[in-house]
Amino acid sequence: MIKHLLNSKVPYRYYALLMMLGTSSMAFAQQKNYTIKGKVTDSRTGQSVPGTTIKLKGTNQSVSTNANGEFTLTTSINPGKYDLVLSNVGYTPTTTSIELGNQTTLTLAPSLQEDLVRMNEVIVIGNAVGTSRKVLGNAVSTVNAKDIANSNATSIDQALTGKVAGAQISQNSGNPAGGISVQLRGPSSIVGGGSPLYIVDGVIVNNSSAELLDLGGYSQNRLVDINPADIENIEIIKGAAAAAIYGSRASNGVVQITTKKGKEGKPTFTFSTSLKTSSLRKKLPYNTYNKTFVNTTATDLTQTDVTRYDYQDKIFQTGVGTDNNISMSGGTAGTKYYISGNYLNNQGIIKNTDFTRGGLRARLDQDLNSWLKLGAGMNYVYSHSNEMPNGGMNEAYGALTGFIFSNNFINPEKDQNGKYPSTTPVNVVKRTNPLEAINNFKFAQRTSRFIGNLSLQAKPLEGLTLNYILGFDNANSLGTAYIPPGNTTPSYEKGYAQRADISTFMLNNDFNASYQTKIGDWLESTSGAGLTFQTEKNMSTNLKATQMGYGGETIDNGVVVPKELRSDMNIFGAFFQQTFGIKEKLYLTGAIRYDMSSVFGSENRSQFYPKVSGSYVLSNEQFWQNSAINNVLSSFKIRASYGQSGNLTALSPFDRYTNYSPFNTGGINGIIPTDRMGNEGIKPERQEEFEIGTDLSMFKDRLGLEFSYYRKNVKDLLLDINLTPSTGYSVQYANIGTMTNRGMEFLLRGVPVLKENFKWNITAVYSRNKNVVNNVPGGILMYTAGFGQVAAVNGYPLGAFYATYFARNEDGSIYHNAAGLPTTAKVGKDNNGVPTGATLKKVIGDPNPDWTGSLINEINVGSKWTFRAQLDAVVGQDVFNFTRRVGDRDLYGGLAGYEPELRGEVPKGTSAALFSIMENWIEKGSFVKVREVSASYNWARPNSKIKNIRFSLAGRNLFSFDNYSGWDPEVNAAGQSNAVRGFDFVEVPLPRQVIAGVNLTF
What we know:
Elements (H helix, E strand, L loop, with lengths): L1 H6 L4 H19 L1 E8 L1 E2 L10 E4 L5 E3 L5 E8 L2 E8 L6 E7 L4 E4 L2 E2 L9 E3 L5 E3 L7 E5 H7 L4 H4 L7 E5 L8 E5 L12 E4 L2 E2 L26 E7 L2 H4 L10 E6 L5 E15 L11 E3 L9 E3 L5 H5 L3 E13 L3 E13 L6 E14 L4 E16 L11 H7 L28 H7 L1 E17 L5 E20 L12 E24 L3 E24 L12 E24 L3 E12 L8 E12 L4 H4 L7 E15 L12 E6 L2 E6 L2 E2 L7 E14 L4 E20 L8 E25 L2 E17 L5 E4 L6 E4 L6 E4 L22 E4 L5 E5 L2 E4 L5 E11 L3 E11 L2 E4 H6 L11 H5 L6 H6 L6 E3 L2 E14 L7 E9 L3 E3 L20 E2 L7 E10 L1
Parallel strand pairs: 1-8, 2-9, 15-18, 36-39, 49-54
Antiparallel strand pairs: 1-5, 3-4, 3-6, 6-7, 10-11, 12-17, 13-14, 15-16, 17-18, 19-22, 19-55, 20-21, 22-23, 23-24, 24-25, 25-26, 26-27, 27-28, 28-29, 29-30, 30-31, 31-32, 32-33, 33-37, 34-35, 37-38, 38-39, 39-40, 40-47, 41-42, 42-43, 43-46, 44-45, 47-48, 48-51, 49-50, 51-52, 51-53, 52-55
């Protein structure tokens, strides 16, 4: 029989198959079933470490520790020596060698050492493979759940303030829903937005700042919908090299947010509740002089007695709020779940304002087999806010606008007939009685939002990971406004109603593949590739009604003016990235991203964005480890990177076309073109960035330093160019502007004291950025959002204050005319030195700071007490105090700055003269702010139903050390504008907050 088989003409492939089957049978025959179990503890405190991942190196098998730090890993494998790799957020990865032999059950007691300076963090950029920070050739900042929880912030971006090197994060308004601006390494566009790309669990989410209602420049940004208590980790990708693989949406950086997931073990419940008070930190000094001039004639000094009122006491209140969260998590080795709910109610410091948010979030992770995992998540949020219009920027109605234009010798309370008096000099200017706005106006916003994702992860082969993510974000926001007839507003005496809504749908399909392998003993390879298809749809309507009838608050009770907008945008992208690691010392990475966007014409629809980076870990060299320097410098890495990324924010989906507007004449409908000619040849704004830096740790990883220097050049900025009248149009978009950002970043982490029962952490952040704009047509581009006093000026930083300034004498002193009054500088002077001719303008201030920094101290006493404080500094910025400009003017005179004129200390007419000299209202806005202070007590009760109770007392924005005369130098009346910054015109100031809370785990 055997001889027959050998002599027969059987194809060789069958022999090969038989040999493979035989080899496989031998392999399976040698395999044994093993159980590896144990408990992972903290090497310093001895406490269990839940959520630790234990991976059997060389296989696809891994487990996570449960709530008690315990794990059990079962495997069928050949006997021999293996490595177990243990990793957890906040700890240094550890490898434990084991030997599997005749004993089939192995019990271990591994421990993890805290990653005190976070040098061993695992970062995920653009694909499914986590990369150690030591490998990266560019800077990436991280903020974890503990950092966020300690901040006691309402929103995620608010919680990031002061914690990220290279990020300028400021709260523009003290309204209860905030209004946060985030800039990473300076602005990247002149007319586009400055907000980073936000990704939550792989879902590209909407963080727009749509201004549905005119509230005086303030608008919510949609990151306020996401509950900070649900966040596990945040990675901030700042440089173009790191963001290059995200393509044309990454010019402003990328913020990757990972939410909490379930862990193996019995169900764990957490409940937290807090009570918050918000109050005005500082009042504006107001006019208390009991006389006023009878007219504005300079030579008539006649005064009359008046009674002054403190309007601020009538406008502001101490708001009360509560924040409640509940969650349940747990699961088995194959199925893990996390469910949470939250309810927040936050009263504002302006009377009759508040913000309410409620949400439900669920996450399920299911192992389909040993190499395939399915994940699904959903988050539904409903929010509602009662708003107070402050007017000023586009409209003249509003509470704080009425306050600053008021003569505070007029009693603002309503009369015996229930009618509010006009508090402004109506023969000069008419504004709203602030108390009428607070008590009678009805402005509200509500948002219903659903964020969902479905992910599939496959590891069919050792080292190969395939990831698919389907993400969608659907948000519907509605704003309503009502001003009753017979009011004190200048424009809507007969009443006003508005209904505005915007519906935004975003969807992303992402497929990523990565492959890690070791080629010999000295070369590691990580390859990554991905495809993405993204779509974004926006629909908005805006219905305004005037001449309202009495008794009805809806738009159908007046004369309606409608407006509607619709837009679609599609993006297709692909990337490839390759990293080589040489002898665990030198790491080289190259990548390219290909993008197609429907926003651009066929000529420039396709774009390529390259990236290269490298890092060299000198401390892994043998000479370093054997030298005395290793005792001081535990690790030392140098890095460099170069990359390009694009920007879509400056262009709407249909801006490349010549747009037309509906038109009706004589009852006949038609369309007319706008004054902007289309341009099919425009392309994305593009930036290229070079970065060098170092990461090092000292004294056995007790002190860590991250340093980066970068230079970012932005070109092809979209700006309007003027056209000749013969074209029939006035302007056209063109890629002509340029911009440069240069800066450096320092992040220092240290642990000066580390004992079993005492730990002291210090974190210091320092950032400096210098921005310059060039190639602006005509040299100057004015911004209406700053009342024409803010501009992009060639050779200056974006958003410079460009306005009138003092006329000066030859010696540099301020010129005064014959009446003793200052004047504006003009083009010439007569023989007597009197300024004549046209008024001059120049750059008079810069809202961009010279540098920003923060200092965070955290002290842990035993396992019970934690004390924490964060100081934030902004140095070198100017603030345009438009509030003081109006309040100090003789026509209104509600602020204390007008008193010297009333007292005769300066000539009558001084305030009127200064009103037109904008240089006078530029103030130094540097400050050091006590951003966060907290103390907490942790009461562990392992043998009771309630396992842990944590009590906390915290404060936010408690004190500000500054010389600014306004409410707060951290302000911007233009909201989240990328260009108009540091403009103060009666925006709600940031409140001082005190928060008391309790957290239960059971």
